[in-house]
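Regression test case RT-17, inverse folding.

Input:
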């Protein structure tokens, strides 16, 4: 199979993993899902011919997942539906727009 097919497969896997990590209500499962997405990015770097970036991404993802799991393992945090206030959302959009413009 050509490299492009593998990259599209990995990209689709990463998109599905990102959406799944947003929808999962358990924080530890969400952290693991984000780590899997990062490992997919590491594979994409490897297929694109950048083994140095792939290695750095791999090590960084492993360390981040370990640190986050250790931080949240001792806490029993339930994810509650966050109340989004309209003014805070508008302020966040204005700040992001000013950064990118």
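Golden output:
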């Amino acid at each position: 199979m050509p490299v492009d097919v593998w990259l599209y497969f990995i990209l689709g896997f990463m998109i599905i993993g990102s959406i799944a990590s947003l929808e999962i209500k358990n924080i530890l499962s969400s952290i693991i899902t984000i780590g899997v997405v990062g490992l997919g990015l590491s594979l994409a770097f490897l297929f694109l011919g950048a083994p140095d970036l792939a290695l750095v991404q791999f090590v960084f993802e492993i360390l981040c997942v370990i640190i986050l799991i250790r931080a949240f393992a001792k806490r029993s945090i339930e994810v509650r539906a966050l109340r989004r206030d309209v003014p805070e959302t508008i302020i966040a959009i204005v700040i992001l727009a000013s950064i990118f413009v």
